[in-house]
Amino acid sequence: MLSVLLTSGIANGLLYGLIALGVVVLSKAANAVNFSQGDLMAVGGFVSYSVISAAGLGPAAAIVAVLVVSVVAGIASFLILRPLMKTEHVMSLLIATIGLSFLVKGLIRLIWGGQGDYLAVPPLVQGPPLILFGGNVIIPLQYLVMMAGAAVIILLFAAFFRFTRLGLFMRSVADNPRAAQIVGIPTQLVLCSAMVLSITVTAIAGFLLAPATLIFPDMGFALFLKGFAAAIIGGINSLPGAIVGGILLGVCEVMVSGYVSSSAQELSAFVLIFVALIFFPRGIFGARKTRSV
Amino acid sequence: MARPRNQERLIINKKFAFLAGLFLSTLMPTVGSAQAPGVTEDTIKIGTYGPITGPYFAFGRLTMNGMEALFADVNEAGGINGRQIELVRVDDQCDPAGAISAVRRLIFNEEVFAIVGGSCSNGVLAAKEDIVESGIPYINFAAASNKISAPKEDNIFTSMLTSNLESALQAQYLADVGATSVAVVAQHDAWGRDRHETLIPALEEKGIEVVADEELSMESNDATAQVLRIQSAQPDAVVLLSYPKPASIFLRDSARLGFSSTFIGTSVIPDPVAFYEQVAVPGATDNFVTISPSRHPVDSEEAAEWREKLVSAFPDDTPHSYNLYGITAGELTVAALEAAGEDLTRESFIAALDQVNALETTFGPGTLDCSTHQCLQSAAWIKRNSDGVAEVVGTSELD
Q1: Which of residues 105-134 of A touch B (CB under 8 A)?
Q2: Res B5 pLDDT > 60
């Protein structure tokens, strides 16, 4: 039981972590929170449905479609929100993203509505669970795929920030936007890239989650809250913190549900946030702000 | 300037004539419909409400379609005592505030003779006070809460399987198939609690032990923990007191973890074939049996005639189990209208409903008996067979 619960917790936690990565990237680059992020994750799930279930194509085609749609959605979101992406418009930007959230939900209903209360994407892999160490460790295949997919995205993410020019620009803007602008870094390009990256990583989480659950237009907000909570637990400006926060949240939920009571599952996430913030007010990996004179 | 006396008198006369006309015009409809509101020499106006648009439209619009198709048949055959049935539909979008205003509109604006409708329990419960106070005959056709018709009110009847009776029938079915231990998975909102509170005592009464009692919320995306806890308890069967989404997630995770048992559904999952397609994992619903207030599935041969009528009358809506619930409610209404006789009043209609006993309907699993005002006291058990077709595997009636 422990191994299955752990695998399930880590698999779900990695997906929360991917959503949290999206939150952190946008927060670092633009000091903004995008409330439509969860709905764009749902878009990832619905695009997967169209490609895999409706068109009968494979997961590779689905991921390409998700990437294309999320890049387009990212650029469109940036163009819509650009006038508000300034320090003095923080609240307006927040409200605008809530509006965007309703718009995306409406678009989902328009495109995929009328086919049932919810839709199902078939599992990416089928078969009996993987049994290791003489039955002491049991890992369902779907969780393995989710974990592997999330791990690949995280590695690509890390490589992007470490080795690409755009990644370095984004880190510079995150560290000191004014200095980055002075040395000629194109901040608008960086903000647009942050928006696209944030939405892409979240939409991929939707692609990975869809075969494990069921998809419906309103699914995004609850999952966005989990991702946001993971980002807070890990430290809102820490990329590794987002992943750790997500895993902690996922494992906590499933362990409490498995060993305490399934009625406490939803509550456990909030208790974890509460406890984490008491001991780590800036999140587990949150950097203390220092000022040199 | 002073007005001439003659002109003043003329104005007074005109005012008097206007008021007299107004008074007489208010009397006219009453004189025309001597029996009751909504009844004329050649029509009976029946009101219905429920979600017609929005995400829950199936519960309302499709049930209304079934009832309207039945009324069309009755009208074509000459109506009831020479009167044609007129159906007035009002949309409440499954919203309690919408239900209150729909009921008030039907009673006061449309002045219907009776209401046959209500699809969402929260809405019907919100409007119940207005229904009771007005004394209008009311037949609930799709909402399942026990609290709608219990405690018994003079003017409220239900042709839908109520939550308490559904729980009792689930317990009876489990006893009939020899289950001695069960696990329960419930969503703990008002809908789920309503059923949970009645199922547990019903199981105890039948001597069936509840070995696991788990919660799975509507928001859950994963049921691994619930499946593992139930798997370790080794129950003979699992009762899923949930809407289709949590039930699907539970069955998908059960298949993924290799857990197999007999899974029992509720009446909100009336079509096991559609449910199989929604679960989308081969084999996951092989042992899934669901309870239904209809003895024939909508795609069965027995329902073919009605399917044709529905498609012809409502080409935009696919035939659905909810159509059949509307037909049952319509048949109950028609039987009581006929029994009430030519001098139709609300009181005589309510008295006729009270007298309904052993009424055969096209789709009711057993006969209707309205002595408790909860007229449907039987259920059918439906599963998807190996050919992919919905099949009735049994019926249960309360002892």
Answers
A1: 116-123, 126, 128-129
A2: no
Strands (E), chain A: 119-120, 130-132, 137-139, 214-215
Q: Is B265 helix (H, G, I), strand (E, B) or coil?
A: strand
pLDDT over threshold 80, residue A117: no
Q: What is the DSSP string of B27-94?
A: HHHHHH--SSTTB-SSEEEEEEEE-SSSTTHIIIIIHHHHHHHHHHHHHHTT-BTTBEEEEEEEE-TT
Confidence band of B16 (pLDDT split at 50, 70, 90)? low
Q: Which residues contact B186 (CB under 8 A, 6 or more apart)?
A: B192, B193, B195, B196, B213, B214, B215, B216, B241, B242
Q: How many domains does chain A have?
A: 1
CB contact under 8 Å between A116 and B278, yes or no, is yes
pLDDT digits (tens, 9 = 90+) for A144-156: 888 888 899 888 8
Are B280 and A53 a contacting pair at CB < 8 A?
yes
Q: Does B289 touch chain A (CB under 8 A)?
A: no
When scoring A5, A16, A213 by the number of chain B Cβ atoms within 10 A, the one with the most, hence best to mutate, is A213
- Residue B19 falls inside a structural domain: no
CA distance B224 to chain A (A): 7
Which of B215, B225, B278 faces A258 most closely, judged by CB atoms?
A: B225
Residue A244 distance to chain B (closest CA, Å): 20
Contact A213 B249 (CB under 8 A): yes
Assigned domain for A252 exists = yes
Q: Which of A53, A214, A254 sits opposite B225 (nearest CB)?
A: A254
In sequence order, what DSSP letters do the residues of B299-358 get, joined into one string? TSGGGHHHHHHHHHH-TTS---HHHHHHHHHHHHHHHHHHHH-SS--HHHHHHHHHT--S
A225 touches chain B (CB under 8 A): no
The answer as to whether B61 is a domain residue is yes
CB contact under 8 A, A1 and B244: no
Of residues A143, A182, A183, A158, the one with CA closest to residue A24: A158
Instruction: Classify residue B36: in a domain, yes or no.
Output: no
Distance CA A202, CA A18 (A): 6
Output the pLDDT for position B20: 52
Q: pLDDT tens digit string along A9-68?
A: 998 899 999 999 888 888 888 778 889 999 999 999 999 999 998 888 888 999 999 999
- Residues B361 and B340 placed together within one structural domain of the fold: yes
Of B215, B221, B257, the CB nearest to A213: B221
**Range of B264's domain?**
164-292
Question: Does B22 have pLDDT greater than 50?
Answer: no
Question: A256 is written with which tokens?
Answer: 């409490």
d(CA B156, CA B42): 26
Q: What is the CATH number of the domain that holds A271?
A: 1.10.3470
Report which DSSP code applies to A98. Answer: H
Asked if residue B34 belongs to a domain, the reply is no
d(CA B87, CA B65): 10
Which H/E stretch holds residue A199?
helix A187-209
Q: Can you give the pTM of this predicted structure?
A: 0.79
Whether the predicted pLDDT of B298 surpasses 70: yes
Cβ neighbours, 10 Å, residue A144:
16
Nearest CA in chain B to A8: B224
Please give the average per-residue pLDDT across A108-131, as a whole number.
79
Q: Which two tokens stand for residue A211?
A: 């075969």
Shortest Cα distance, chain B CAs vs residue A213, angstroms = 5
The interface predicted TM-score of the complex, written ipTM, equals: 0.79
